[in-house]
Amino acid sequence: MSGEFEVAVIGGGLAGLSAAMTSARLGRSTVVLTGGLAGGQLVSIEHIDGVPGFPEGVPGYDLCPMAQEQCDAAGVSFLQDACGGLESECETWRIETASGAVLAGAVIIATGSSFVKLGVPGEEKFQGRGVSDCASCDGPLLRGKTAVVVGGGDSAMQEALALALHVDKVTMIVKSDALTGQIAYRNDVGTNGKIEVQTQKTVTEILGQDGVDAVRVKDETSGEETEIKAAAVFVFTGLEPNSGFLKNAASLNESRHILTDASMRTSAKGVFAAGTVRAASACRAAGVMGDGATAATAAHHYLATGLWSAQD
Description:
By secondary structure, this protein is of the alpha/beta class. It contains six helices and 17 strands. A hairpin with a 2-residue loop joins β4 (85-89) and β5. α1 (14-25) runs parallel beside α2 (60-74), α1 runs parallel beside α6 (285-305) and α4 runs parallel beside α5 (183-190). 46% of the residues are buried.
């Protein structure tokens, strides 16, 4: 599909879906380039907390399809292609895709982030054969076994808690001297008898034959290395923004996050950013949805007035 729209949203996670729904409800012809399955990484999350209207939390595989249905009802068009390039053509932006060029008067970048890899031996070899980033997908296959979760932030703790519903034991390997992230998750992890937290440790190698059998762990204090028997490793050591396709289209910070103002405007006229791809993101589901709505509202104002800077 190619064509011309008033607003093009690049990215089909919650930030992008929120932006698209808001844009369409404001009367703008809107397309979302999902780059694959709509919903992004949150589709595989077993339990998302902090979303208004869901006091007990909500699975990502329920929340994201609901958001897509709302977009459909508002008249949003969907294209599963990824963005292959973004270029300015006078007052219009040209987005290259495998299905042809998409033209838009305003662009909202909501491409999210990808998990940082450990970069240790065995990680690539056992990807999909014991190395995973989806507890809800693979947890049921690990009943009666031990799993290792690498990381100590929100995502790592969420996955550890989800895995504990299925496996006999979860060992969390945390480089710092304590878990980080939300206190609610830390409390839940601390009171879960299936979860063991090992701090000031790093994984140096993932071992196995046909699949994962163990991980080699280094004590950051003593330098001693030991092996932990495990059937799977889930890596959640951080996120890196999916901003590589931008090249020089908008300003980035040192970590490659897109710089925006409070209205989600970037350095490029007509281009906005929302969600974890932007600098200073809250990295929470409710927060990225708010980013999306803010970006769409600002894009609507820009298209209506032609004004760009905060002083206009």
